[in-house]
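User: Show me a protein chain along with its predicted structure.
Assistant: Here is one chain, sequence first, then structure tokens.
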Amino acid sequence: MNFLRPCIIQDTPFLLAFRIAFFCNLGNPKEYWLGFVKIEISDFLLPAIANTLSLATIISKKTTHMKKTILIFGTMFCSLVAFGQQNFYEMPNGKIIDYKTYQTVKENLAKNGKLEEIIISKISRNDSIIITPKLNVLTQKDENGNYTDPYGEQKKLIGTHFPIEIFKNKKGVKYKSNTLENKPTLITFWFTNCIPCVAEIPILNNLKDTLKDKVNFFAITFDNAEKVENFMQKRNLNYNHIVDAKEPIKQLKVSAYPTNLILNKEGIIIDVYGEISDSEKTILQTLNKLLL
């Protein structure tokens, strides 16, 4: 007798149902039924179809006298075409949109300048992938008419380990390379006379107050310790401070202020921001996801 021998893998409800009601032989090795529709498939194509559907189903060799009939509902025919994971996109306001809508959003933004797309995270959920993108529009141009990005050098570092070991703590001792591991990290590059840096201090403090010690918070500046301490008496920034860091900052080619970096639990740079007055919610969402 012929039997379908399913190899159990992690199934979605659809794939499990489809596995149970997969192709069945009707005596003719080339005739198969999907619902009430008869189709003809050559035997050598069956393994390819099974692999394409991610169904590890083995169809045993057929005898010329045995017949099996399993009825597959017509809806399965439509599902056959629509198999696989679909991409959805989570926007800064928390709304999740489909691929077509996301492309429309990008097309509209691109009308205002050069569009940059950074993928912050991808989360697989059953038959879908939830992608969290960050979209930037460059509007500044150089003398040659080319779009410029003041944070371009830092964006080149996305995907690399932040070199905390080139910086020194308050005692003048260099940090260990694994200092920022095991927790997500927010790093802000700033200086005391930077107006937009000072303006976003309440936002930086809000993030610290919300996430507390679950996240590393560092503020790095080329200002000396005395200048920073005097400033903190007026406008406190409740972060771990790294001061007198002119050379390491130069090494990282930071030239636009403020510059804000988000690191994952491995100390890898995953995103770069300039001024964050309109991005508090997005940054909070990103840090919370990194805590999972």
